[in-house]
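Convert to structure. Protein one:
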Amino acid sequence: MKVQSLLPSFLLCLCFGACSPEHGQSGSEISCQIGQIGDNLCQDSLGDNYFCGEQGVCTPRPDVDAGEPAPDTSVAPDGAMRAFVTYPIYKGDFAVGLGEPTIEADRICQVQADAQAIGGQWMAWLSSDSSVAPTRLIGEGPWISMADEGPSTLFLNRAQLEAGPQSTEWLHPDGSTTAGSLCSWSGTTARGDVANTCQNWTSNTGPGTAGSTIAVLDRWTDNGSEDCFSSCAFYCFETR
């Protein structure tokens, strides 16, 4: 009888990769499937301060006390700069024949911002064989989404670029939503090191490191490698 009573829960875990907590379980004991499904289950079970961590268990978000309310990311901090994600139309060889690839990516960000008349100076979160994204980024933050009303804080400061975003509300420069996960070329690990760069962004074969717009922690910048023939976006940051 005991086996029969546990069977539905077991099948639920098997199918969905995560289990609801039993009485007395802590967050670190709740198994989950890494990704949005697991994040949703952890938040439903334990609150918005939790996500599915790298070990496949529900984990408090970094720099957040699980006993405290989650930070209000809908209020733009003073002095906030903006960030957006381009449309995913750029293959890994986007800079072939164009010289330093980070300069070309910066130009793409600026062109898209200018096309929407949103003002500002913009750069791409991208590393190349000769330049790394964190050292190119000017400013201390915070950076917010492009929403006209109720902007969401993505990164409160530079330290969160390594820890991961507070929000995953990445928008395009016209304010439209990404409609799910987009890959975004970065060539950058969470520690700010150069990763795979599609042969310095000149080849459509081989791997290129890209982030995911719905990812938390380091997966926002390093969600693994995409085939360089894939079409991905760029993260664009306003600078000062």
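Protein two, convert as well:
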Amino acid sequence: MKRLFFLIFILSLFSSTMSWSVQTTATTETQATYRDIKQTLGIIPTFLKQYPEAGISGAWLDMKGLQLNPMSTLPGKYKELIGLAIAAQVPCRFCAYFHTEAAKLNKATPLEIKEAIAMAAGVRRWSTFLTGVQIDVGEFRSEVDKMLMYQNKHKNLQAMEIEPSLDEVKITTPGDVYKDVKAQMGFVPNFITQYPKISIVGAWKEMKGIEMNPESEIPGKYKDLIGLAVSAQIPCQYCVYYHTQSAIMQGATKEELAETAALAGTVRAWSTVLNGLMTDEKQFQGEVNQIMKYLKSKMGKEVGLSN
């Protein structure tokens, strides 16, 4: 009996020692994480202090490894415009403010910021419509492949001056839209014919003016990556397919596609945390301003949110 009690005592002592060791390790890692956050951002934002200590190390490493990493495949400016586009349509006022200020820090222009937001709005519009009218997914993908193949072929011919560029045409009726769509895509896709005729003129002109505009401030590849990020977290299988294939056609790499999708997840995750904690908006904006001021002072000296 004495041996049994002794064995129980030893096991209990071992268990307590192990528990203490794990807690000590976790506490040490957490403190190291807080030090790194302060060194990187200048302060430890309140929402990071409020995040569960058991997960803060991993959450911070994930954020720092991609979103805050100047060595990522995606340039800093476009990461922040992607973040802003996602935040705008979540919608999350916290993330929208942070990514707007971070985009400005990365020298994004007012027009680029507006275009990123407009791209997000356009993706939400077409995602809602495609899902609502229940377009056949297989048919949609086939039409996207056909459309992009046509556009790529004629883009190359125009670049070699074998074929003239398309002239801008006046669009005032649904008939004008279908004629222009056929000239741009080689045919009129089913999702275009199903869109209400009473508003297709405006919808098509908006799409051409923002998403399909080769003269936009944001290059085509990055507009499609914005589209992919937004559609990935809606989620919309139609838009994910279109923007992935279109981005690839414009030179997007596997790494850029993966980083884009990961960024979409990161923004959604922190939006959830910030809103779930009912973070004080004025306090949050004040802390963001402190972070941006600190990073700006460190430009050219230390790694921050800059390219």
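Confidence is low (pLDDT under 50) at residues 6-11, 16-23. The two ends are 70 Å apart (CA to CA).
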